[in-house]
Structures are given as structure tokens and as C-alpha cells.
Amino acid sequence: MIIDFHTHTFPDKSSEKIVNHLAHIGCIPPHTDGSVIGLFSSMKEADIDYSVNLPVMTKPSQVEKVNSSLIQQQEYLLDMKIITFGGMHPSYTNYKEELLRLKQAGIPGIKLHPAYQNVDLDDIRMMRIIDEASSQGLITLVHAGIDIGIYDHNYSSVAHILKLLKEIENNKDSLNYKIVYDSWDIAIYYNRKSYKINYYTDNAYVKELINLLIDISPIHVDLHGWS
After folding, report:
1. Whether residue 192 has pLDDT greater than 90
2. Largest Cα–Cα distance in the chain?
3. 115 Cβ neighbours under 8 A, 6+ residues apart
4. pLDDT tens digits, one per residue of 94-120
5. Integer angstrom CA distances of residue 150 from 7, 131, 146
6. What is the pLDDT of residue 195?
7. What secondary structure letter does DSSP report for 59?
8. Cα(191)–Cα(194) distance, rounded to whole angstroms?
9. Using the 8-state DSSP alphabet, how is residue 225 labeled?
10. Which residues contact 15 (CB under 8 A, 6 or more apart)?
11. Which of 90-114 are b and which e, b meaning 16 or more Cβ less than 10 Å from the residue's Cβ?
12. Average pLDDT, the chain
């Protein structure tokens, strides 16, 4: 089974505009129109069994509205082989109640995007959300490193991630195993030890990197943006 764990979809009426904007700032041509149907068609073409939709809340006011829409669409999305996460914004105040609502609706986790939310990952607002999500058994997926469309500041660097992990590592056993992609650096957080392996970021070392990851498994791996 093949699962694409990092996808985005947008409402039909605005998907084309949003995708074109992201393509412009990221200088990467889009391969779908950003709609659910567009993603499903792309999945069929590439023999992808399931995709995971990761909504990004750029404003606190979007949280309840977007999450409600995703909750309502869950059955339809699953028919399209798309598993959706919810979203959260660090400045959204009722995060505990909203996380509980997502959990009760069967949403498996949330996405945070420090760059588009203009908040460092180790900010106390981020830590509170991640800690609460963890206590409720929700997965938290975080964009790590510089975003291709936002170069002014690295909101989720290796240093930010390690600081966050050290703050909340005792809350869930799953935090023993972490891989983060940080711009052109890769760091591994494994059994409470950190390993920086910058030289693996050259494509010539990809095979060696993969072998290292296999050696220290079981771990969760997301080399987002690699081929």
C-alpha cells in the first residue's frame, strides 16, 4: 500500500487561485488544481492508495470554520481515499475545546505550519497546543525548516524542534523517535539523543542516509521534498 502523507486540498471555488498564488511564491508549477477531485485524479494516475490532507490555518478565525467543513466532508473524503487532518492556529484561544471536538469527530490529528502562522515552533502557544493534542491522543504534524515561499526567517529550525522535544518528551513514548527536515539540514532525534547529519543532504549520500535510517528503525520518516 502507498500512502501520500503530505497533501493539501482547497475549496473548489478558491482552489485554483490559491494554488496559482503558492506556485508563484514558491516558483514551482502545480500538478493539480488543488481540489479534492484534482488530488483524487492525481492519486489514480500515480497508483496512490490513500492521501492525507493537511489543512493550514493562516488565521485564528479560520480554525472552527475550516475544521467544521472537514468534519462534514469526512465520509466524502474517505470515499475519495483521502484521510483528513484538522488544523490549528497558535493564536486560537479555545484550542483545548477544538482539539476535543476534532478527536470526538474521528479526526486523527492536526497540522501546524510555523512559517505561514508567523510563530516560532518553540513558542509557548505552539507548545501548549502540541502538549494538549498529545494528551488527547492526536497526531501533530509540523512543517519543519524554511518554507520555499517564505525565506525571511526559519520558524521551525532544528534548534526549535529540539527545544520543543526536550520540553514535552516525557508526555508520550512516540517522542522517542523523531526525524525532522530542516531546510538543507537533517537532524534525527532518537532515544533521547540528537544526531545532526548535514552532509547527507547532498543527493550523492541519499542511499547512505536511507541505510542509516533503516539501522535505527523503528522511526517515523518524512523526507518532505526529497526524491
Report:
1. no
2. 47
3. 143, 146, 147, 150, 153, 155, 156
4. 999 999 999 999 999 999 999 999 999
5. 19, 26, 7
6. 53
7. S
8. 8
9. T
10. 9, 33, 34, 35, 38
11. bbbeebeebbebbbeeebebbbbbb
12. 77
Residue the block writes with cell 518528551: 169
- Which ranges in the chain belong to alpha helices (H)? 12-26, 36-46, 63-79, 95-104, 114-117, 124-135, 158-168, 206-215
The cell for 94 is 479555545
Give the tens place of pLDDT for each residue, 11-57: 877 777 777 767 666 677 877 888 899 899 999 999 999 999 999 99
pTM of the model: 0.72
Grid look-up 505552539 returns 126
Q: From residue 140, give the alpha-carbon distance in Å to each of 16, 62, 95, 172, 184.
A: 27, 18, 13, 12, 22
**What grid cell was written down for 111?**
497540522
Q: Which candidate, 84, 214, 91, places its Cα nearest to that of 139?
A: 84
Query: Stretch 137-165: mean pLDDT, rounded?
Result: 80
